[in-house]
Amino acid sequence: MAKAKTQFICSNCGYTSARYLGRCPNCGQWNTLIEEKIVPEAVVNRKARISFDGRVAKPKKISEISGNELPRTRTGLRELNRVLGGGIVPGSLILIGGDPGIGKSTLMLQVSGQLAENGGSVLYVSGEESDNQIKLRADRLGVGSDSFIVYPETDMEQIKSIVQQIEPDYLVIDSVQTMQEPDLQSPIGSVAQIREVTANLMQIAKTNAITVFIVGHVTKDGSIAGPKILEHMVDTVLYFEGDANYKYRILRTVKNRFGSTNELGIFEMRDHGLREVANPSEIFLEERLAGATGSAITASMEGSRPILVEVQALVAPTVFGNAQRVTTGVDRNRVSQILAVLEKHANLLLQNQDAHVRITGGVKIDEPAADLAIALAVASSYHEKATNASDVFLGEVGLGGEVRSISLIEDRLKEIAKLGFKRAIVSKNNLAGIDLPKGLQVIGVSTLEEALKLGLDLNRASKQKGFADL
Ligand code: TYD
Ligand code: MG
């Protein structure tokens, strides 16, 4: 066997170089090149090339390939089924990333328990907790089926042989950072190890049609440690997010070969594990103060589902230096732009005011449909006048102060009506040819000024500052 040489690989993009470089020429990141050994060509196992269903592949005409819908196993957690695109595709490789302590192990334990109860066999490999610890937690979660097997191990060779022996339907690896390929010289948790371990897991998944869940911890900068390469290798990437200080957790699809991305599942962390939140709009609105200023409701599309969220704004005079714009859950530039439009087209003097804008409940919004609600929340705080608690605002705000139409208006209006709101203020252009839900008054406006007059009821309040000219 030829002596193994080393090469340098970028932990961010996978670029390889023969020598060390401070900055990756491919992705431009600093200090991401990591040394690893090159396995000589002759040692690479050619048998590793196996098709999706475990047989040697043949080229076929596309018309000859049967395009049957993928079979899916539904888990007992509907929110999980949703983010997976309808259920688990057998033989797929699913990566679940998230901060330490967010609840990945809890989720996997619950899902494993349910799969085992529905007749599947599950092998749960933990490199982080002893079987005793897992048992204690499983008891708390009410997981106790006989086809649920716990295996505290980190050595991939051992794991492979046990998988061959037990032939489970599902394999859970908690976490990929703790597993190791003993033949590889690199330390546990290094890029080379993680890549090798994942390649092995991919082989296990594809040759035996075992569904593999891989748990991966996320580093401070938000990438799964050992990093993008891992995301390229798996079929589905889910991120488990949320603030450990709040009880709500969001499971987000980042990549899915078997469904759409940007789907969202919402859970609540309880004493006895995670509970699904069937109606997220209600929880995001439940803490809303009646009659408070600087608040407006909008309906944001999260994947295929509209969710009602509250936009909060606080506008206060700048005490020192430049006016600040602070945002949470919404793009700062977008907010700056809306503030500029308010200044120019609605006579709000905002340049000497600090503005804080946030979306409550830890939700992130990146679509223009929330513009109008942001504008309303800012104007509401500025004028110290509350929006009507039963109004919802939908629309993109253009630079000319116009309110523009948005996508999927009917889905959003349906959700708004379902939650008992009375009025929706939308772009006039959105009204043509749509079905209006019962019990909801939908008002079309063309300009931001009209929307502000309606939403803040400005005609009746003439004493407030800045109203005279509206
Ligand atoms: P865990 O699943 O261990 O996180 P991860 O695997 O992502 O590191 O979750 C740990 C947290 O969840 C811990 O702070 C305790 C909390 N928790 C509950 O609140 N209720 C429960 O039933 C369980 C099992 C955990
Ligand atoms: Mg864990």
From TrEMBL:
Q: Which GO terms describe its molecular function?
A: ATP binding; ATP-dependent DNA damage sensor activity; damaged DNA binding; hydrolase activity; zinc ion binding
Family annotation (PROSITE patterns): RECA_2
Q: Which domain of life is it from?
A: Bacteria
Which function does this protein serve?
A: Plays a role in repairing double-strand DNA breaks, probably involving stabilizing or processing branched DNA or blocked replication forks. DNA-dependent ATPase involved in processing of recombination intermediates, plays a role in repairing DNA breaks. Stimulates the branch migration of RecA-mediated strand transfer reactions, allowing the 3' invading strand to extend heteroduplex DNA faster. Binds ssDNA in the presence of ADP but not other nucleotides, has ATPase activity that is stimulated by ssDNA and various branched DNA structures, but inhibited by SSB. Does not have RecA's homology-searching function.
- State the species of origin: Oenococcus oeni (strain ATCC BAA-331 / PSU-1)
User: Which family is this protein grouped under?
Assistant: Belongs to the RecA family. RadA subfamily.
Q: Where is this region: Lon-protease-like?
A: 354-470
Put simply, this protein is called DNA repair protein RadA
Q: Which gene encodes it?
A: radA
Organism ancestry = Bacteria, Bacillati, Bacillota, Bacilli, Lactobacillales
GO CC, sorted alphabetically, is: cytosol
Give residues annotated as binding ATP: G98, D99, P100, G101, I102, G103, K104, S105
Chain ranges for the short sequence motif RadA KNRFG motif as given in the UniProt record? 255-259
The chain positions of domain RecA family profile read 69-218
Q: GO biological process: any one?
A: recombinational repair
Q: Give the matching Pfam families.
A: AAA_25, ChlI, Zn_ribbon_LapB
Instruction: Please name the InterPro entries in this protein's record.
Output: AAA+_ATPase, DNA_repair_RadA, P-loop_NTPase, RecA_ATP-bd, Ribosomal_Su5_D2-typ_SF, Ribsml_uS5_D2-typ_fold_subgr, Rubredoxin_2
Q: What's in the domain note?
A: The middle region has homology to RecA with ATPase motifs including the RadA KNRFG motif, while the C-terminus is homologous to Lon protease.
Name the UniProt key words of this record, in alphabetical order: ATP-binding, DNA damage, DNA repair, DNA-binding, Hydrolase, Metal-binding, Nucleotide-binding, Stress response, Zinc, Zinc-finger
